[in-house]
Specification:
19 strands, Vanillyl-alcohol Oxidase, Chain A, domain 3, eight-stranded antiparallel beta sheet, 14 helices, alpha+beta, about 475 residues, single chain, about 25% strand
Length: about 475
């Protein structure tokens, strides 16, 4: 498929108090629109919110160029998003132009296991398109709501093994720069821009479409293994890197305070012994999804519920049927399956990338820092991430165990300060181990922590100012971390 050529704590706490006191929403014509993200803690006024209708012929490109020209002339910043499930403001341009991509189109090359897709396509739409053809995304985010270009911009990873982040499966893309020109980027062509845009948080241009590798869809069967948490890293790395029969894998840890991170559960998926001639269509959540969400939420303020959930995951669930499902069904999970029903609380994600040989020390740091925090710790999912050799801002320059953590935070100034302090402590410890933390969640890291976790950050900022000298593409993340 050839390509056509005040203090930070006080500031955040006071801002949260103001947001809680006066809810913000879209105003009448001529007034600013107020947008937010998944944290519900970043109300941001924007001058304009525009949804261009993309198409494979590219008829919308001139309208996009005109929008950039108008924004530049007016001194407005520009940021692009899709599903807007971010938590760190990277899709929010204060007093600028917010662009949301949707309306997907596809061009699928089954002979070469590639698909070309428009930037705003959601993973659920991609799965729906590939599934009837017997294919599946090679790597995608762990939920199906997100946009494909957004996934590239944060270089998210999934849980198929033995792969690196999503960017490792992207062959090429088209990028519109600040001056409206369009460049084709790959590892061979405009390679520097490719490495900057991968995990570049939309700061180098607007992705129009991408060429992405796909894999065969297959029926998979799970295996469950319970072990001491200290034994997890060696076992997990062995199956992810040395057992080619394992196609998907993840882990969980016990979260009740009395046994915090003492036990680990590893779930691996291999091809089922019997493969039907025609695979069942992909589903997106079982009949008990609502019940599982209720159990998940019961953990807030209840150690008994945390123990009960761990028992269900380790003892009950492995015995409830075969667990056989297609690759597509396993990945086709919407964020809404873990929706938060509480207006006074919000779900906050953290993610840390630990060197496998320092994983025991990572566990010890978490045991020391997380249980005393005011925020309720609900879950951690462990995933394998192979070394990323392309992205300049790589969070996994070598193979890492990713720990995706879910907290339930009180929406109050006190809750926010507690979360900032907890985050800083965790980052300090994981960076000292040679690991990193994920940037696109709440913007609670100190700049010195960013510089230690991402040693190429100075180069990243310098190249940003070369490719976008007027800083047209800016967002809240740029202001807090890089500006």
């Amino acid at each position: 498929m050839p390509r056509l050529t005040p203090t930070r704590r006080a500031f955040l706490a006071s801002g949260l108090a103001a947001a809680a006191a006066r809810p913000l929403e879209a105003r009448a014509a001529g007034e600013r629109v107020v947008m937010n993200d998944a944290s519900r803690l970043n109300p941001t006024p924007v001058a304009k919110h525009w949804r261009p209708a993309s198409d494979p012929a590219g008829a919308y490109v001139e309208a996009l160029r005109a929008e950039l020209k108008d924004a530049a002339a007016s001194g407005r910043r520009v940021a692009v998003g899709a599903a807007r499930h971010s938590m760190g403001g990277q899709s929010l341009p204060r007093d600028g132009t917010a662009i949301t991509f949707d309306r997907p189109w596809f061009d699928i090359d089954t002979a070469n296991s590639l698909y070309r897709v428009s930037a705003g396509a959601r993973w659920a739409e991609i799965i729906a398109k590939l599934d009837p053809l017997g294919f599946s995304p090679k790597v995608m985010q762990s939920n199906n709501d997100f946009g494909v270009a957004s996934t590239f911009c944060i270089n998210a990873h999934g849980w198929p093994v033995p792969f690196g982040p999503f960017g490792s499966t992207v062959r090429a893309l088209r990028l519109m720069l600040a001056d409206g020109s369009i460049v084709e980027c790959s590892r061979e062509k405009n390679a520097e821009l490719f490495s900057l845009a991968m995990g570049g948080y939309g700061l180098f241009g607007i992705i129009l479409d991408l060429d992405v590798e796909m894999a065969k869809n297959v029926l998979l069967a799970p295996t469950f293994e319970i072990m001491p948490a200290e034994a997890f890293a060696d076992r997990f790395i062995a199956v992810a890197e040395k057992d080619p029969s394992v196609l998907m894998a993840y882990g969980r840890l016990s979260v009740a305070r009395a046994t915090f991170f003492d036990q680990a559960l590893m779930i691996t998926y291999r091809a089922a012994a019997e493969q039907p001639a025609i695979l069942p269509a992909a589903t997106n959540g079982g009949a008990l999804t609502w019940l599982l969400n209720d159990i998940y939420r019961e953990q807030i303020g209840s150690e008994a519920a945390k123990r009960a959930r761990w028992y269900a995951e380790t003892r009950v669930n492995p015995n409830l049927g075969s667990g056989v499902a297609t690759r597509n069904s396993l990945m086709n999970e919407p964020v809404s399956n873990l929706r938060n029903p509480y207006r006074a609380r919000t779900d906050i994600l953290h993610e840390y990338f630990a060197p496998p040989d320092r994983f025991r020390e990572f566990l010890a740091a978490c045991r020391e820092i997380i249980p005393p925090a005011k925020a309720e710790f609900l879950n951690v999912t462990l995933r394998y991430v192979a070394a990323d050799e392309t992205a300049l801002m790589a969070f996994a320059p070598k193979a890492r165990i990713a720990a995706v953590m879910s907290f339930s935070q009180e929406m109050s100034p006190e809750g926010e300060v507690d979360m900032i302090e907890t985050t800083e402590r965790l980052i300090d410890r994981v960076v000292a181990l040679g690991g990193a933390f994920y940037l696109p969640y709440r913007l609670h890291a100190r700049r010195d922590q960013i510089e230690k976790a991402y040693p190429n950050v100075a180069r990243f900022i310098e190249r940003k100012r070369v490719y976008d000298p007027k800083l047209l593409f800016r967002n809240t993340m740029w202001d807090v971390y890089f500006g």
